[in-house]
Structures are given as structure tokens and as C-alpha cells.
Amino acid sequence: MPVDDYIQIMTDSLIRKSEILDKLIVKNEEMHDCVADKTYDEVDWDSFNLIVAQKQMYIDRIVKMDEGFQRLYDRVKEQLNEDRTKYADNIKEIQKLIEKVTGQGVKISTGEERNKKIIEKLFGNRKKEIRRTRNSLKVANSYAQTMSSDFGMDLSSQDVKK
Fold this sequence. Notes:
mainly alpha
């Protein structure tokens, strides 16, 4: 296969990668909308998990594309270096695309970090609620035991009548 064909495939691959990265950026925003300014119980966790699965599908595609791109580049790198002037325009186009996908990657990382902090806060608050509930139950049980021993009653099994 001629070098020009490899270069075109690499260029097309970077364009497709950019399109997928745009989809990941949208999914990050959807994830943010799903959890932002909500309590744990207000979050639609089914929708959240669906977004996570969709993002994973895009990430898997990108990993495969990156592997293919690297294999193609390894095949033509010597020829590109030997005849830089002939391929200068192609190299510049590829560099611009790489710069674009790098910027998209940074935007995705920033969104991921923002979402991670929100989710950690949601789970941290949920843990606090669970701890408070456990402590309240312990206090209630302790009170019931104290009252039953003070009055000789078993409150846990006593029928309360109206």
C-alpha cells in the first residue's frame, strides 16, 4: 500500500476519533446533569449507569483506533521522515488533528474530574446518612433496653394497644 494511502487512513482515523471524543464530551455533560445539585436519592441511577456504559463503549473504540493508528504510523514513519517536504502538508494536517484531539481529551478529563468530585460528595453524604441512621437505631435500642430493664418490661415484644 502506498504511503499516501496510509496517511489518508491515519487522517480519517483522527477525524473519527475527534467525532467520538465529541460524543464523550456530550456524555460527560449528560452525566453532570444527572448528578449535579441533587441528593443521592434524587439521582436517576439507571440513567447514570447507562451513560457510564455508553462512555465505556466509546472509550473502547478509541483505544482500538489508537492502536491501529500507532501500527500505521510505525509502518510509514521512516518514509515520512525521509521525505518530509513531500508530505509536509499531510504532516501538518495530522498535527492539527492531534492537537484538536488532545484538547478534546483535556476537556474530557476536566469533565470527568468535576463529575468524580460530585459523585464522591454524593456517596460521602450517603455514608453520613447511613451512619446517622445506625447511631439513631443504636440509641433507640439502648433506650428501649434501659426502659425495659428499669420497669421490668420487654418493650420489643409488647403489644401496644390503642
